[in-house]
Amino acid sequence: MKSAMLDKCQACAIPIIRIVLGIIFVMHGAHKIIGWEVAGLGGAGGLENTVAGMTAMGMPAVVVYMVAFGELLGGIALIFGFLSRLAALGILIIMLGAFFMVHLPNGFFLNWYGVEGVHHGFEFNLALIAMCLAVIFGGPGCCALDNKLCKKC
């Protein structure tokens, strides 16, 4: 038999995932676009550097812009629960691209120790993909603008 406390905790699961996912992508998008200083990245962010770096990897510039703004705007949408499933789908597509184009050849593990010449694997991308799928299939949960704007929700 379920308790009322467990029901309340379960109701918080998806919003927690949605909001944390949103914060992660606001930070990543902001770093790519406006170059917020991020520890360990040496201020290498900003749209000009992002475009230069990602086009050097063979990505078309238009895709780089879509990724950067998709991360920032998708993250904001997830935090507020606005078009949550669509925002999570956009971020899922970005993460699948990062998974296959960048991280898969590097194996599973992140470069936790910052070993020179060793690149990050796909474990973080896998966690983000799972979070996106939770929002896509579970909906925005409580405390979302989607619930206020959509009567079916």
Task: Write down the overall mean pLDDT.
Answer: 89
Rg, rounded, reads 17 Å
Task: Find the count of extended strands (DSSP E, 2+ residues).
Answer: 0
Helix content: 55-70%
Question: Which strand-content bin applies to the residues?
Answer: under 5%
Point out poorly predicted stretches: none
Largest sheet: none
Terminal-residue CA separation: 27 Å
Structural class: mainly alpha
Total number of distinct structural domains: 1
Number of helices: 6
Shape: globular
Report the order of strands and helices.
Answer: HHHHHH
Relevant terms:
mainly alpha; globular; 153 residues
Structural write-up:
With 153 residues, the chain is mostly helical. The chain has one domain (14-149). The chain contains six helices and no strands. α1 (4-34) crosses α5, α3 (61-80) packs across α4 and α4 runs antiparallel to α5. The two termini are 27 Å apart. The model has no long low-confidence stretch (mean pLDDT 89).
Per-chain topology:
Layout: H1 4-34, H2 47-56, H3 61-80, H4 84-103, H5 123-138, H6 145-149
Helix pairs in contact: 1-2, 1-3, 1-5, 2-3, 3-4, 4-5
Describe, in short, the structure shown:
The protein has 153 residues and is mainly α. It has helices at residues 4-34, 47-56, 61-80, 84-103, 123-138, 145-149.
